[in-house]
Amino acid sequence: MTGEAPPGLPEATEPPVAALADPLTRILSLTDFAGLAERTMDRPSFDYIAGGSGEEITLRENVEALRRRRLRSRILVDVTSVDPSTHILGAPLRMPVGIAPMAFGHLAHPSAEPAMARAAGQAGVAFCLSTMSSTPLEEVAGAAPDGAPRWFQLYVHRDRAVSHDLVSRAEAAGYSAIVLTADLPVAGDRERDLRNGLQYPERFGNFTAAEGVAGRPLLEVIGGFNERGLTWRDVAWLRGLTSLPIVIKGVMSGADASRAVRAGAAGVWVSNHGGRQLDRAPASIDVLDEVVRAVGQRTVDGQPVEIYLDGGVRRGADVATALAMGAQAVFVGRPLGLALAVGGEAGVRRGLELLRGELLTTMALMGVTSVDRFRRWMVEP
Ligand SMILES: Cc1cc2nc3c(=O)[nH]c(=O)nc-3n(C[C@H](O)[C@H](O)[C@H](O)COP(=O)(O)O)c2cc1C
After folding, report:
1. Which residue lies with its CA nearest to atom 28 of ligand 1?
2. Are 198 and 228 in contact (CB under 8 A)?
3. Is 258 helix (H, G, I), strand (E, B) or coil?
4. Is any ligand 1 atom within 6 A of the Cβ of residue 273?
5. How far apart are CA 223 and CA 273, in angstroms?
6. What residue numbers bound the domain in which 305 lies?
7. Which protein residue's CA is at the shortest distance from atom 21 of ligand 1?
8. CATH number for the domain including 147?
9. pTM, rounded to two decimals
10. 58: Cβ–Cβ under 8 A, 6 or more apart, which residues?
11. Distance (Å, rounded) from C-alpha 107 to C-alpha 365?
């Protein structure tokens, strides 16, 4: 900008060049990452992260069902200080948020899972590493040695020895819970990946895949690894392998939540895999009431069973909605995967920072000064 300033006013200046050059400064909410990622990523990688199964009905419904809820507030509450901190499985969090497990982080960015884990540690949110991470679990643990809790997500392999080994390694590397993903007995039909010919990668983190799988269709390979015959009996098997708490991910009904508690799960993770598995499953927020009722005040090993939720969480208002309805914390997938793609570790940090800012504003405007003050009546319907 040129021209002289009117007398008494400072000369108008251009915004700093660095701010213009850094696309992250133009990102003002988690939902902004997708547009930038779509313009900069290769199509198969973008589609792998952003896409869902079938007609992507559940993928859309997760987001829309949260947006349909309305928040009620109390006025004239002193909100000089608003504190979103909480704990999960006894560990402190700076806000009730975690990064959901996402396979093949290298498709987003070469810095992959270590960058995610570092950003989570700095933001004081939980990080859950996928069995199918691009980086070995020990390396991820080493990249972010301290900070918020780090959990390991388990897909049970057909060869149980592979899973036994993974669980022992995760425990030795300092992961503090095992998250058993129970909604992938077979892979969902992800048409974008089929159309793009997405292949199983050469580079892979946690176990040695059989010869010749690199280059084969990605979902066919993953589906092939997984134990189709997994049942509730296997939760007892898993509990026998580790002293770590077990969280069951993929719970979508009160009946299964009850069953998970009876099986000894310390946590129940309401999820439809972000609309990547059973298309036409309801939105995860729409089964939360049922799950909260089923779990009630029940305990496992003397501790109250915790409920987490993922699927469609994009805004501070979504976090507030899930908390008021009874979730202990929420997990975020795609937007942070795309944030990693756009800006590496700094992108994920930016995403978490924005989410925290929105949550603080939402809590202040609802008259809620700490997470234990959320109530079910604050969400309609
Ligand atoms: C790219 C990508 C990879 C994923 N990989 C895994 C995985 O390896 N294990 C797992 O349990 N869930 C996986 N999920 C599901 C997420 O953990 C989570 O349930 C879902 O992304 C939440 O929905 P959201 O993306 O709308 O936030 C993946 C999701 C995405 C987007």
Report:
1. 102
2. no
3. helix
4. yes
5. 15
6. 30-368
7. 333
8. 3.20.20.70
9. 0.94
10. 52, 272, 275, 278, 279, 280, 281, 282, 283
11. 38
